[in-house]
């Protein structure tokens, strides 16, 4: 019994220190992000990206949109891509054996017909059934292929693409007009760049017309509102700070641009996995570091891709479970890079951080919710310390979210209404009182179901973007 | 434990309160900032409108003094004035450009830009170079050229662009002729700079090309090709025999851009090059300047061992007058790869 009590006491202490350490680490990340964002904003003052909008010297780019059962959003998505400010680009929509009418909706809307376009097979993929094009919409190429998963669809898109840079965009996302040019400018300014990611922000509740976001609002759905705060925190602090150290491990599959030859060199996206966006980045780091090549993998906080967050608990659960499985899968696959000096900040800092805080974090936090109250109930922890611990954990978590909202306000100011900002602050406060604990459970479920679920995406209900003003 | 816990409590509470107050403060600041910016822009628009409408010297001096008084003690007003001037300069006819330069001097913008140039901040240097180019402040050329050894990409890019906008052959040529490894910009960025050059492209290239390395030669040729400078054809032809394949490719593209069928034979010869990228570029270039003389050579190139050469050759062959018939005869031939390339192109073009 004594050993059990000792265990409870020490484990509770460990959980308390861990929770505070993780929050202090995140607050430290925020500090790094502040420097990075300010230097980015200063740089944008002298940036010449607008000059390249109509310039034929801009790098031509292939936009690859993998689509599986996306009949509700795919046409809006293509329309938004057609409206981009960019001189030369092609839109390759890869219909990955959808069971709904994704393919037919695109063919019908844009008047595409089957063509016999030759394809150079740089990467192995499932069979392509046909390629569709239209003289009226020369930029659009529809690739209809056997189902092989998102990674396989991206690889097929790479094979069909003609340009040296490609961007991967999710079919349920919408890009801001200047997002692509801002993103790809980094390839012009820094030719050693192999990948760059833009920020993914949530459009739930906002108004979108003809593929353009015209009014930004906070959604009525509470689950989506919590996620707005979460996304701001993840992108504006987490990714910005890691990017500063050239050790970012994920470029969101929803919006990223890549040097095509570098991706082909590492064998393309890993098929039959659900964390392909993380896999490709770690693979690129691994190869570049191993071969001691000069390279950059960047995250930019300004080029915006709007997407929709799940609005039901079940969809949120599927999403978080999937993310955790993808993370676990990749960390295991690249465990050989851990604490290896030759991999620089990736091996010595980022990978350990992901293992310690992102993968194991939910488990420790969950156990903390059990053991710390137990320690108090068994009289091993006095009420004073017990209470202070919870308040500190709550406040540190809240300060991180509020810091991210502040960063958004200082830098990009997408939310202009005071009411909306106060609502975000409110959700930043409430987030730690239930929502966070729920997502922890979903993430633990992901770890538990790792073996079974590592090859299955699960499905999330898609909604059309809100096309007209709603009161 | 308790003392540490209390310290953490105060830190976390302090952080949360500070962030909350900062959010509210930022919103209020940005609200007033937006309103002030709008008002200032309106006032500047009015004053600049008057400046460019007036012809009399004395009236000009009065309004310039008024402008100076308005912007002298406010960084925001000065920045907005610079932005407004750039916009005005873009809309004005060339003969009024002189007046823009006068305003830049009279409102002490040039003195401000000189201060930015002499500061220690790379971002200030970039901004200064940007405005020097946009407002054509040639008086700061010497100050700006002191930054030519900067290792900062933004500074270097903005300085090169400013020199191009000033039409400064000497300055631009001196930097481009130096070792190109000092310029860590993509070739597209440098091409864009050269394309922005406001002077005689022939003079710039003539003065630079023999003194720079192959990488920069390729860039200069590409930039000239985009503008279709046929007077530079002898230079393009000269470098077709370079050892550097990228330079050969740049020359092929430049020759194709001249749209002069008299240069066809140069490209036909390049279909025999040892590098497939060069052969592919030549095959593509013949689509623009090829005649029936190119058809047999393109017919051979369709059988090339490299996919891109076959595709480009097939595409050019089908596009040339009389080429489609020749291409159809290849479909019936024994070379399966050549046949596939032709069929693909024919289907795409039908």
From TrEMBL, chain A:
It holds the Pfam family Glycos_transf_2. Keywords: Glycosyltransferase, Membrane, Transferase, Transmembrane, Transmembrane helix. It comes from Paenibacillus terricola. Signal peptide: none annotated. The keyword Iron does not apply. Belongs to the glycosyltransferase 2 family. Residues 62-202 form the Glycosyltransferase 2-like domain. SUPFAM superfamilies: Nucleotide-diphospho-sugar transferases. The chain crosses the membrane at residues 7-26, 353-379, 386-406. This is Glycosyltransferase family 2 protein. InterPro entries: Glyco_trans_2-like (IPR001173), Nucleotide-diphossugar_trans (IPR029044).
UniProtKB/TrEMBL annotation, chain B:
The keyword Acetylation does not apply. Coiled coil: none annotated. Keywords: Membrane, Transmembrane, Transmembrane helix. Gene3D superfamilies: Leucine-rich Repeat Variant. The lineage of its organism: Bacteria, Bacillati, Bacillota, Bacilli, Bacillales. This is HEAT repeat domain-containing protein. SUPFAM superfamilies: ARM repeat. PANTHER family: DEOXYHYPUSINE HYDROXYLASE, PBS LYASE HEAT-LIKE PROTEIN. Pfam families: HEAT_2. It comes from Paenibacillus terricola. The chain crosses the membrane at residues 7-32. The keyword Iron-sulfur does not apply.
């Amino acid at each position: 019994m004594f050993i059990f009590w000792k265990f409870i006491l020490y484990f509770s202490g460990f959980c308390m220190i861990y929770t505070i350490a993780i929050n202090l680490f995140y607050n430290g990340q925020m500090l790094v992000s502040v420097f990075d964002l300010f230097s980015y904003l200063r740089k944008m003052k002298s940036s010449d990206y607008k000059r390249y909008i109509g310039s034929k010297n801009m790098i031509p780019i292939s936009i690859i949109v993998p689509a599986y059962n996306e009949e509700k959003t795919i046409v809006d998505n293509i329309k938004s891509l057609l409206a981009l400010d960019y001189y030369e680009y092609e839109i390759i929509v890869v219909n990955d054996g959808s069971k709904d009418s994704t393919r037919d909706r695109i063919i019908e809307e844009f008047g595409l017909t089957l063509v016999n376009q030759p394809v150079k097979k740089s990467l192995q993929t499932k069979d392509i059934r046909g390629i569709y094009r239209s003289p009226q919409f020369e930029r659009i190429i529809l690739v209809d292929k056997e189902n092989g998963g998102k990674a396989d669809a991206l690889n097929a898109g790479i094979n069909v693409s003609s340009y040296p840079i490609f961007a991967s965009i999710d079919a349920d996302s919408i890009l801001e007009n200047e997002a692509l040019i801002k993103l790809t400018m980094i390839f012009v300014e820094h030719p050693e760049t192999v990948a760059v990611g833009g920020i993914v922000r949530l459009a739930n509740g906002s108004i979108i017309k003809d593929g353009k976001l015209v009014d930004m609002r906070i959604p009525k759905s509470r689950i989506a509102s919590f996620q707005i705060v979460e996304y701001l925190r993840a992108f504006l602090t987490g990714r910005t700070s890691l990017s500063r150290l050239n050790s970012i491990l994920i470029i969101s599959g929803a919006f990223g641009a890549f040097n095509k030859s570098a991706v082909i060199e590492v064998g393309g996206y890993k098929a039959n996995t659900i964390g392909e966006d993380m896999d490709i980045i770690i693979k690129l780091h691994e190869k570049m570091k191993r071969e001691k090549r000069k390279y950059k993998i960047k995250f930019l906080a300004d080029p915006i891709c709007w997407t929709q967050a799940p609005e039901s608990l079940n969809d949120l659960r599927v999403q978080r479970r999937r993310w955790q499985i993808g993370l676990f899968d990749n960390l295991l696959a690249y465990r050989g890079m851990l604490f290896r000096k030759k991999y620089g900040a990736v091996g010595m800092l980022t990978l350990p951080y992901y293992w310690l805080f992102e993968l194991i974090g939910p488990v420790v936090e969950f156990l903390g919710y059990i053991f710390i109250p137990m320690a108090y109930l068994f009289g091993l922890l006095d009420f004073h310390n017990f209470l202070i611990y919870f308040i500190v954990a709550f406040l540190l978590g809240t300060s991180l979210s509020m810091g991210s909202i502040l960063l958004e306000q200082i830098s990009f100011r997408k939310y202009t209404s005071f009411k909306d900002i106060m609502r975000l602050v409110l959700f930043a406060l409430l987030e730690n009182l239930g929502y966070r604990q729920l997502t922890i459970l979903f993430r633990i479920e992901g770890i538990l179901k790792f073996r079974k679920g590592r090859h299955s995406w699960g499905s999330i209900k898609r909604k059309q973007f809100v096309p007209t003003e709603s009161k | 434990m308790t003392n540490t816990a209390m310290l953490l409590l105060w830190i976390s509470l302090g952080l949360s309160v500070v962030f909350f107050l900062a959010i509210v403060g930022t919103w209020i600041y940005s609200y007033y900032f937006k309103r002030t910016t709008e008002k200032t822009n309106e006032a500047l628009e009015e004053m600049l409108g008057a400046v460019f409408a007036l012809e009399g010297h004395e009236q000009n001096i009065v309004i310039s003094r008024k402008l100076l008084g308005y912007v002298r003690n406010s960084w925001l007003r000065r920045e907005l004035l610079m932005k407004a001037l750039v916009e005005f300069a873009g809309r004005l006819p060339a003969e009024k450009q002189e007046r823009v330069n006068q305003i830049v001097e009279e409102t002490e913008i040039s003195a401000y830009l000189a201060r930015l140039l002499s500061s220690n901040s790379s971002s200030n240097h970039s901004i200064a170079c940007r405005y020097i180019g946009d407002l054509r402040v040639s008086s700061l050329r010497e100050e700006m050229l002191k930054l030519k050894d900067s290792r900062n990409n933004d500074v270097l890019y903005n300085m090169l662009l400013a020199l191009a906008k000033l039409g400064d052959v000497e300055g631009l040529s001196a930097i481009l002729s130096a070792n190109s490894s000092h310029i860590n910009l993509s070739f597209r960025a440098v091409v864009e700079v050269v394309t922005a050059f406001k002077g005689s492209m022939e003079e710039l290239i003539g003065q630079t090309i023999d003194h720079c390395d192959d990488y920069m030669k390729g860039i200069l040729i590409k930039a000239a090709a985009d503008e279709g400078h046929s007077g530079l054809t002898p230079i393009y032809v000269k470098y077709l025999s370079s050892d550097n394949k990228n330079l050969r490719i740049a020359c092929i593209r430049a020759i194709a851009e001249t749209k002069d069928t008299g240069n066809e034979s140069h490209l036909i010869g390049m279909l025999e090059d040892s590098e497939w990228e060069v052969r592919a570029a030549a095959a593509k270039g013949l689509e623009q300047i090829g005649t029936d003389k190119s058809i047999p050579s393109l017919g051979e190139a369709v059988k090339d061992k490299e996919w891109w050469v076959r595709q480009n050759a097939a595409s050019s062959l089908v596009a040339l007058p009389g080429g489609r018939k020749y291409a159809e005869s290849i479909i019936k031939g024994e070379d399966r790869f050549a046949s596939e390339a032709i069929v693909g192109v024919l289907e795409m073009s039908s």
